[in-house]
Automatic annotation (TrEMBL):
The lineage of its organism: Bacteria, Pseudomonadati, Bacteroidota, Chitinophagia, Chitinophagales. This is ATP phosphoribosyltransferase. It catalyses: 1-(5-phospho-beta-D-ribosyl)-ATP + diphosphate = 5-phospho-alpha-D-ribose 1-diphosphate + ATP. Signal peptide: none annotated. The gene is hisG. Residues 55-209 form the ATP phosphoribosyltransferase catalytic domain. It comes from Chitinophaga dinghuensis. Its EC number is 2.4.2.17.
């Protein structure tokens, strides 16, 4: 009786680049939710699923804390947050890359040119790892938004930010010089997910994989 009432708690982005495709994926999986953009949560009518609408950056923490069991979030966010969260499945949307960019006028031949520079980014953990792997000593300036303006205002020599078309970089007089990470939306789950939730996750995953197969 308890088990039949058990629900899987899924966190998706409240609004932004991943929101619409996350809802669309659930629909394609045959899961009906009343689209409540202004609500905190909603329930599926035909699957034991509760959907929470959250800021993407907060999703790994909410999963670790048990507020949600699983989430749909960019791989970039999962890797940056370093929470108790596993990547279960890549979802094929939200594709972008985390790239280093420098002013167009700067001579750039290799990663060595980043030596002793100041780099502005919202991804200090991933950038630090990249610099360490490449034996580059650079100063990381963590800023939460509008990273691309940092070189123009003299805050940094270069940036590391998410790019899809590159037009934002171009408009800010920057050129992309290194790809640090290729990212897309993923289904992420708590590392120690309970058996009952895990069973529901397998059901959902089975549907997601069928949707992906049908598209290929
Ligand atoms: P929130 O209000 O939820 O914090 P946000 O502004 O941080 O939203 P979005 O800009 O909506 O986030 O991006 C969400 C995710 O979309 C990113 O973490 C990334 O995985 C993916 N993405 C795809 N293309 C891009 C892009 N060009 N720029 C930024 N993110 C992108
Ligand atoms: Zn965010």
């Amino acid at each position: 009786l308890f088990v039949s009432k058990m629900k899987l708690k899924l966190a998706i982005q409240k609004s932004g680049r991943l929101h619409d495709d996350s809802i669309k994926l659930l629909k394609e999986c045959g899961i009906d939710i009343n689209n409540g953009v202004n609500k905190l949560k909603t329930e599926a009518s035909n699957f034991p699923l509760e959907v929470f609408f959250l800021r993407d950056d907060d999703i790994p923490q909410y999963i670790e804390d048990g507020v949600a069991d699983i989430g749909i979030v960019g791989e970039n966010v999962v890797l940056e947050k370093k929470k108790q969260v596993d990547i279960v499945e890549k979802l094929g949307f939200g594709k972008c890359r985390l790239s280093m960019a420098v002013p167009k006028s700067m001579e750039y031949n290799s990663v060595e040119d980043l030596q002793n520079t100041r780099i502005a980014t919202s991804y200090p953990i991933i950038v630090n790892e990249f610099l360490r792997k490449n034996n580059i000593k650079a100063e990381i300036h963590e800023i939460s938004g509008s990273v691309e303006i940092a070189p123009g205002i003299g805050l940094a020599d270069g940036i590391c930010d998410l790019v899809s078309s590159g037009s934002t970089l171009f408009m800010n007089g920057l050129k992309e010089v290194e790809t640090v990470l290729k990212s897309e939306a993923v289904l992420a789950a708590f590392k120690s997910i309970q058996p009952a939730q895990s069973k529901l996750l397998d059901k959902l995953l089975f549907r997601i994989q069928a949707v992906k197969k049908a598209k290929n």
